[in-house]
Amino acid sequence: MKELKKKIEKYKTQFNREITLIQDKKGLQELRNLFLSRKKGYVSLLFEDFKTLKPEERPEAGKIINELKEYVQTKLQALQEEFSTAKKVEKTYDLTLPGKDIYLGSPHPIVHFQQEIEQIFLTMGFTIEEGPEIETDYYNFEALNFPQHHPARDDWDTLYIKDDLLLRTHTSPVQIRVMEKKKPPIRIIIPGKVFRKETPDPTHLPMFFQVEGLVIDVGITFAHLKGTLEYFLKALFNENIKIRFRPSFFPFTEPSAEVDIECTVCDGKNEDCRVCGGSGWIEILGAGMVDPQVLKNVNIDPERYSGFAFGMGIDRTAMFAFQISDMRNFYENDLRFIRQVLRK
Ligand code: PHE
Description:
Blueprint: H1 2-20, H2 25-36, H3 42-51, H4 58-92, H5 109-123, E1 127-128, E2 134-136, H6 137-140, E3 160-162, E4 165-167, H7 173-181, E5 186-195, E6 207-217, H8 222-236, E7 243-250, E8 253-262, E9 281-290, H9 292-297, E10 306-313, H10 314-321, H11 335-343
Parallel strand pairs: 1-5
Antiparallel strand pairs: 2-4, 3-4, 5-6, 6-10, 7-8, 8-9, 9-10
Helix pairs in contact: 1-3, 1-4, 2-4, 3-4
The structure holds phenylalanine (PHE).
Phenylalanine binds at residues 170, 172, 212, 250, 253, 286-288, 309-311.
């Protein structure tokens, strides 16, 4: 009996020491086997000893062996629960992980830029019009005062579908479509895709966006054109941007001008600037007073009404606004590029 008590004491100390060393479920199972396995577990062995005891010693012996057994069981059970809950928490949350970046979709940078442009004109009282991307020769050229075989057509490298059907090379045909339907006063912008037979390079794409402007009313002069474009470009770039009007030619405007802004990359200070070629200026739009012949073509009396029109490349202008040296970047759909541009 004395020996039994000693053994129990020894097992308990051993158990208490070993349970503190357990790291995982595997260790737990090993300790459980060591003490509780049916054949060779320490507790089972104690019951073997029990059989050799005198009958009067048995009740007490049974009690203390069972006490050890219960002690071991309760401790192992508690540890097992600890392991399971710890595991569960680990599965659900790893509080050390950085948060997931949820990316909300947004309009493409070009569309975004187009919306900025639209917003400026909307505040000036313009409305937005649209027209078809597949056009007839009449709207794209003829009605805009480009007669058949006129050399000015060569400036628009046209993608023809049939003799009379083409992908519009500019948004100007929508001027005609609108003036056929609406009578002055007209104050509209026309954003949209246009197409030209170009091989893509840093400053040319076969498909790009333009925004056209058209104002027709009584008494509209070149001063209105200048004031409108100046206001617009200052709102789009910045208050201090320098703007220059150069005489030019378009069959559908007379007089015509090309409008330059001071180079946004070198501010006109770098003779080797790759963007402006050292000139300090970059051309961003064509404009002019609507040619009287165009007004006649849509039955608007040029004696009574006058107006101005302009057309600007959206991608090209975006390139300068975002200071990007290759326009093709906009269409490669590399999210790293797109997100970077959008953040500005
Ligand atoms: N349509 C011309 C182009 O594509 C731009 C322009 C529009 C010029 C309106 C004058 C007036 O180059």
